[in-house]
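Practice problem: predict the structure.
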Amino acid sequence: MKSFIPQTMATLLRRLDAALAGALTGRGPEHVHRMRVTCRRLRNAVKVFRPFLPPARSLAWDQSLRRLAKLSGQARDLDVHILFLQDYLLRLTSGKERPAAEGLLKHIQKQRRGLQPRLALAITRFRKDRTAAAIRRHLKTLPSLPQAKDKRFLSGLAGRKISKRLKKLLSFEPHVGNPRLSKQLHRTRIAAKHLRYTLEAFRPLYGRRADPFIGSALKIQRVLGGLHDLDVWDAELSRFSGRRALGDLRRHCRQARAGRYGTFIRFWKRCRRDKTWSRLARLAEAS
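Answer:
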């Protein structure tokens, strides 16, 4: 039990190393995606396990990971837009819309190429500031900490962290019924993501009991993530000079968004009907 914290963080650090190496090449969007996700997971782990980490240094680690995650997020968003447009063009039957759609694709691809040197510089700086090495050094001392040997302390910490994340997610309950509240729905997605990461961090304590709740949080995160991507597309199309020629694409995005929202609200109601979050609250309180 005492070793799961260093094991969890060491695994994430190994994944980050691999993702950084791939993202530097600029070949394929999957490396940037893994880089962004792993940065976020590590940031969450640093916050969740803060009682076991040096306060000043853990704050510096979080800031370093945050800078890296922000730029990788920008690159990933552009990669998603490119893939979306490429797929749309493959299925496009209107010849009149194709030139405008291809023009938008070239515009976004140019943005992505322009971002790659900045992303490479950010990765190089992250490596030079030795954040990962500093975390690894500290992890070696964790098993000797008195708190790390105390299962009751860890269980209490898990219960408090999970309860806090769950309370944040449920605070959006008054807003989720309105599909027009894009910002609130986006924050709901972020809250579900943080709850999921926290549950995953403490899964060694709960075992399979945590899996249904991880799955529910992941479902909300993914569905609302797709919805947010479509909201971003709508805003992008409103700024693009050829937006008048892309009426079909805009209608496609809005129809897809409506479908995403329908999937989300049905699942949200199902979680409420099945008392998913009440059961998670009881699990956290029992810790």
